[in-house]
Specification:
This protein is mainly alpha-helical. The protein has a single domain, classed as Arc Repressor Mutant, subunit A (Orthogonal Bundle), CATH 1.10.10. The chain has seven helices and three strands; from the N terminus they run αααβααββαα. Strands 1-3-2 form a three-stranded antiparallel beta sheet. Strand 2 and strand 3 form a beta hairpin. Helix 2 packs across helix 6, helix 3 packs across helix 6 and helix 4 packs across helix 5. The longest helix is centred in the N-terminal third of the chain and has 40 residues. The N terminus and C terminus are likely disordered. Pfam families: MarR (PF01047).
Length: about 190
């Protein structure tokens, strides 16, 4: 099915007939357009949910191909530290959008697996700094390469016209969601 152009609705767009439309005999056209927009949004939402399941599965497979013990949230932690460098636990928790205690438990597991190391901040003895180990960096790089290859293989099976449309649609979708554009240097959004 070909991709549709993004739909722009604002809070005033109800699909109801206004006086100008009613006077021009367009009542049915406008009412139908309103219901078509709602149906298009539902269809788009369903398609994106299906695609997100595929992308999560590809991500999980790419991580498992490297290390079966790493969860998707743990991998996200590694990716954030890979792109931003060492961080204290409070900053890391904020970047992960989790409670500090959750970040601490995740870091404990990753330290235990040799993917992170923890040290005391020389400027504040009460603060712990966490950073990737060399093995942690290799896991991020290898899993990201696996995921990229899997996504490319799926995309290669699509017709060229659909791929072009998908690039446009996904760029618009990610921009509407506040994600940085392709090529942006902050990699915290990799997962």
């Amino acid at each position: 099915m070909p991709l549709r152009r993004p739909i722009e609705l604002d809070s005033t767009d109800t699909g109801r007939v206004g006086p100008t439309c009613a006077n021009n005999g367009l009542e049915g056209v406008v009412a139908k357009a309103g219901s078509t927009r709602a149906r298009d949004i539902d269809e788009l939402t369903d398609a994106l949910l299906t695609a997100s399941r595929l992308l999560v599965a590809l991500s999980a497979r790419s991580i498992a191909a490297v290390d079966e013990t790493i969860t998707v949230p743990q991998f996200r932690t590694l990716v954030i530290l890979s792109s931003r460098g060492p961080a204290n636990l409070a900053t890391l928790a904020g970047l992960l959008n989790v409670q500090p205690s959750t970040a601490t438990r995740m870091v404990d597991r990753l330290v235990g697996n040799g993917l992170l190391h923890r040290r005391t901040n020389p400027d504040s003895r009460r603060e712990q700094i966490v950073a990737l180990t060399e093995r942690g960096r290799q896991v991020v790089d290898t899993a990201t390469a696996h995921r990229r290859n899997e996504i490319a293989a799926v995309a290669a099976r699509m017709p060229v016209a659909d791929r072009d449309g998908l690039v446009h649609a996904l760029t618009a979708f990610t921009a509407a969601g506040g994600e940085p554009p392709p090529g942006y240097e902050i990699d915290e959004y990799q997962l």
